[in-house]
Amino acid sequence: MKQEKGHDPTEASRTPATPADRDLTPKKMSDSYHRVVIPLAQDPWLLDSYLNASGHIRLGTIFMDLDALSGIIAYKHTGEDVTTVTAAVDRITIKHPLREICDLELSGQVTYATGRSSMETSLQVAKAPKDGEMVRKEDVLVECAFTMVSLDPGTKKPVQIAPLKVDTAEERRLFDLGEKNSKEKKRLARTALLKQTPNDEESDLIHALWLRQLEYHDPNLPIRKPDNVVYMDMTKIHSSQIMQPQYRNRHNFMIFGGFLLKQTFELAFCCAASFSHTRPSFISLDPSTFENPVPVGSVLYLTATVAYTDPPLVSENEDSLKKDSGFTRVQVRVDSKVRDVEHGHTKPTGQFSYTFLVGKNLKVLPRTYSEFMIWLDAKRRAERVSSSIDPSGNSVGKDGPTDNPRDRFMK
Fold it and tell me: What DSSP state is assigned to residue 361?
């Protein structure tokens, strides 16, 4: 397939390409179920492409596979007459540590679809079970959810898809969870800092941070900025690269979402490592949205910034800051934009927030109003992460990890 010279692959036509008589009868969750086994323990050549320099599984490559699997699952639900794209990554979470190289099973299905254009796919990565056995809970390594949207291939406008038919209590639980996630995303969009000012408590925190910054520069005060406090603008790192056709998606000359996940994650890892001078352990990816497509031949610009550290430098509860656990959750925000080489047009393509754990007591300090808003948005995200982490003992607690962070998935 050759791209026409001067043709913009993102440009829509006026003629719909989706058949008017598509089958939209309700479908079962099991209709879209798909399972893939990656034989890492059996194929050393394949394993080599999944390992990083320290001998651990390269998470960015797994993220690429998960996005590709989500697309397969979505097409099993919608059929081949529509164009299905990744609209958002709703969450990626490490559930259990990987302590050995083994075959990995990636599986998932559509778990939420009401008949409109979008659907939620729920996926997991687990140690591949033996033939005839089921995956054990303690063998689940990663859980995640994607939001996929179906478009008309011609007009690029959303089209209806078949709704889900719920048959069992477990399917009802999964469907209700998807509905809850959908409502929560809408609520967060309404209360975002671009639409609403900070509340009184948040404004007090911003003021306290500003005062702390002034104290560090006041020659009449003995206090000076500690070595473990780093200004936010000093944590930034950047990357840029031209988008090659090897990473385009299946239906046009756009880069597929999994490649963007891999690139943003690895830059976030580098940012956290540069900030902490340690090897960070990945905890989770917050809900992240793909705003605009990335065409083949364009230039992708990424900027990673340490947006928040938990425990923070100042808090509503100052007593909680007195105890030094020796661990810090570091939230890294990666902003991405794409530029047309020929015309110079620039568009934002998404914002990604990754949370890591480092074995040091570190703080990030914003200096400008824009940085204060980044810090505040990240604080809200961190609080949602803390409230959603499984308290069963497989998560990272306030006093550090419940397992050795070196044993966790890493870049």
Answer: -
